[in-house]
Amino acid sequence: MTHSLSLVQARRLALAAQGFLAPPRQGVGAARLNGLIERLGVVQIDSVNALVRSHYLPLYSRLGDYPRELLEQAAWGTGRARRLFEYWGHEASLLPLSLYPLLRWRMRRAAEGGGIYGQLARFGREQQPLIRQVLQAVHERGALGAGSLTQRTLRAGPWWDWSAEKTALEWLFAAGEVTVAGRRGFERLYDLPERVLPSACLDHPEMTEAQAQRALLLRSARALGVATEKDLRDYYRLDPRDSQARLAELVEEGALVPVRVQGWTHTAYCAGEPSAVRGRPVSALLSPFDSLIWERARTERLFGFRYRLEIYTPQHKRVYGYYVLPFLHHERLVGRIDLRADRRADCLMVHAVHEEAPGLDDGALQALAEALRRLAAWLGLAQLQLPCRSPVAGRLRVLLVESLSDGPA
């Protein structure tokens, strides 16, 4: 029997799976933060720093005010404090250590020239002497960044203007021969896995590709709540052929249950029988790289919200702004807020506020004002400014008047 879900039920399953409907709690410690990341299974890393590095935001959206040092310790700390590793999960990602054995097959494929960008694969075939030389330098010198190796004797290509040594490190990283020990600013510091990761990760019995892919799809299903095959494969960026074969196996054994969702044209799946989820009022500003919304077609199906990044769109062609955060309020995406942290002025700048139909009512606008105040405080910014001219911005400005400096009216 195929279960049927209303759109409201599907949305609640998704929000609960992503950690948004948990009862509010006071205080955030390492155990709570690590538990949330284990639940999500992946946190995407992005270099854009218009507000704060994006990997900090998904945890803030769910936990509220938390010390960013907790994430840094989990990601780049030493000893028992380290609970995460960097790898290609959903793009560049922070992942729980429990997933390391599930991604060894991806490392093996990368070492054989598969599953990575064509330019990097070609470099791996053609530049093995340099790659071995760079690996030897890591072995001898310990954690180091590409800048300490760069000689600019070769060029890797036009994409990022990487040096040959940087490209060698990235090939070694994709192949699992080095990992990220820490970061200096935003620069990766690479070291040998055995000097960074717990032996339990490295000594875990090898899994076949099929075993690991099934486990990743199950992790995706638990993290998403309800999702189509394409949604599930996108979470850890599996190939369609692999994903479809593993999905059929999981359905046959009963680990994934097919469901019909109101308005969806493709079959969806749940990890086990779908259960009723009670709603809870929640408001949050979401990173553009939040796992709730990063699969844009699914975001549109769940929330009726068409979302596209405009960071790389020329300014005169942008519709909503440079760094736009969707605003989640009472289980709907009700607005888009273009935000920037002006650190020199010690100010959170609200460059634009856009309403979604049917608009931001008084309750949503009050919740948005409170969310902006809290975000500014968490970022350590003393002021809020709304240098935008729109009716909804005017209404918001009234609510924020006590927090605003004398910015443009």
Secondary structure elements and their pairing?
Elements (H helix, E strand, L loop, with lengths): L2 E3 L1 H11 L12 H11 L2 E2 L12 H7 L4 H9 L7 E6 L1 E6 L7 H8 L6 H9 L1 H14 L22 H11 L4 E6 L2 E5 L7 H4 L6 H16 L2 E2 H7 L4 H13 L3 E6 L6 E4 L11 E3 L10 H8 L20 E6 L2 E11 L4 E9 L6 H17 L4 E3 L5 H10 L9
Parallel strand pairs: 1-8, 13-14
Antiparallel strand pairs: 2-4, 3-4, 5-6, 7-9, 8-9, 10-11, 11-12, 12-13
Condensed summary:
This protein is 38% helix and 18% strand. It is of the alpha+beta class and 409 residues long. The strands form 4 sheets. The protein has a 5-stranded mixed beta sheet.
Share of helical residues:
25-40%
Number of extended strands: 14
What's the average pLDDT? 93
Rg, nearest Å: 22 Å
> How many H/I helical runs?
15
Provide the succession of SSEs: EHHEHHEEHHHHEEHHEHHEEEHEEEHEH
Query: Globular, elongated, flat, extended or rod-shaped: what is the shape?
Result: globular
Q: How far apart, in Å, are the first and last alpha carbons? A: 59 Å
Strand order of the largest sheet: 10-11-12-13-14
Outline the low-pLDDT stretches: 152-160, 403-409
Largest sheet: 5 strands, mixed
Beta-strand percent range: 15-25%
Structural class: alpha+beta
